[in-house]
């Protein structure tokens, strides 16, 4: 069974043919941890080995993949940016595309606070970009400073 690609939506199942499953959560994401838990449960239920790394960096993913034996399956869950970086690192480290599953959790982007209406919305944009407030529609420039209080970015009226 081929189990390749980049998926979102429902958590994809593990490839039961894999004897060893390397499971990585990237980004600090509850959905990714839930997916990793589901994968580990499936692997153990199938009598397979599961190695779960709860908060992996791309470098750690590469390290584990390099040390893994042939035929291991690589499962990555996280927000798009982190998951794609981890998948790329796994590829470079030698994981085959057909052995790698990348599960994209909700595309979160960043949390942007609007000083005009006081709402915080997730936007799929980078600091420096100008986006419309999801609540009041005002154009906001995303300041690069991350607010320590709420983990949000502050928007400035553009
Ligand atoms: Zn607003």
TrEMBL record:
Listed InterPro entries: DmmA-like_C (IPR048037)
Pfam families in alphabetical order: DmmA-like_C
Positions of the Dimethylamine monooxygenase subunit DmmA-like C-terminal domain: 112-155
Protein name: Dimethylamine monooxygenase subunit DmmA-like C-terminal domain-containing protein
Species classification: Bacteria, Bacillati, Actinomycetota, Actinomycetes, Mycobacteriales
């Amino acid at each position: 069974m081929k189990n390749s690609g980049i998926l979102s939506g429902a958590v994809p199942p593990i490839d039961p043919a894999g004897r060893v499953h390397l499971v990585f959560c990237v980004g600090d994401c509850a959905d990714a941890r839930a997916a990793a838990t589901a994968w580990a449960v499936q692997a153990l239920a199938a009598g397979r080995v599961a190695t779960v790394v709860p908060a992996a960096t791309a470098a750690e993913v590469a390290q584990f993949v390099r040390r893994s034996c042939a035929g291991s399956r690589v499962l990555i869950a996280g927000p798009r940016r982190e998951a794609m970086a981890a998948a790329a690192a796994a590829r470079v480290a030698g994981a085959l595309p057909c052995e790698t599953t990348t599960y994209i959790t909700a595309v979160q982007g960043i949390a942007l606070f609007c000083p005009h209406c006081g709402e915080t919305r997730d936007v799929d944009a980078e600091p420096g970009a100008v986006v419309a407030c999801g609540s009041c529609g005002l154009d906001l420039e995303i300041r690069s400073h991350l607010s320590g209080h709420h983990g949000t970015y502050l928007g400035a009226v553009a």
